[in-house]
Amino acid sequence: FQYYDDRFPWRQVIRANITLNWYAGDDAFATAALDTAARGLLAMNEFIPISLSEPIQIYIYSNASDLQDTLMLGGMEWAGGHAHHKLGIAMVAIAPGAGQSIEMETKIPHELAHLMLFRALGAQYERQPAWLIEGIASTMELYPNPEYARALSIASENNSLIPMLDLCASLPADAGSAFLAYAQSQSFVTYIRDSFGSSGLTRL
């Protein structure tokens, strides 16, 4: 199957095995996105096998509404990206402008990490705890979310941290709980990596 959303006047640029599709922003916007994707893959290569031959498609929507209409995720307005593992497609919502670099460095590596993990694990991908998969993807972000630490601190003080066991099957759907779940997942994976190294995380 091929993915093609014909609602937008897509532009396309190819570098190595990455094909970038976008419809808002200039050539510099596309170049910045490709550079971010390359940096993200380079960072992942430390513990996720990276193939530079298998094709990767990145679709950049200019706003979350356009992306949500595509994914038909209902009330999950907080989702700023999605990865179609079997199709090798990463979709993100990034608006051209002053904040585009942070958005690129957060969302593009995160979704690419999902693709690379799926290609490395195959059928085992679906058997991994959600906190582990999302935690790894979050640690691959080139711009760490500064609000995660604050969310963890508040939840710890209020005794409202989510039991990690509850984050095995899936992460919460509502925005507030989902944010805390991502913060916990990233924190836990970072702890594992700091304690046992990238090789330990790979073995896990």
Structure description:
By secondary structure, the chain is α/β, with parallel strands linked by helices. Helix content is 48%, strand content 12%. It has helices at 27-44, 64-71, 100-121, 130-139, 147-157, 175-203, and strands at residues 11-15, 18-22, 56-61, 81-84, 89-93. A five-stranded mixed beta sheet has the order 1-2-3-5-4. Helix 1 crosses helix 3 (100-121), helix 4 (130-139) packs across helix 6 and helix 5 packs across helix 6. The longest helix is centred in the last third of the chain and has 29 residues, at 175-203. It starts with 10 loop residues before the first strand and ends with a helix. The mean pLDDT is 91.
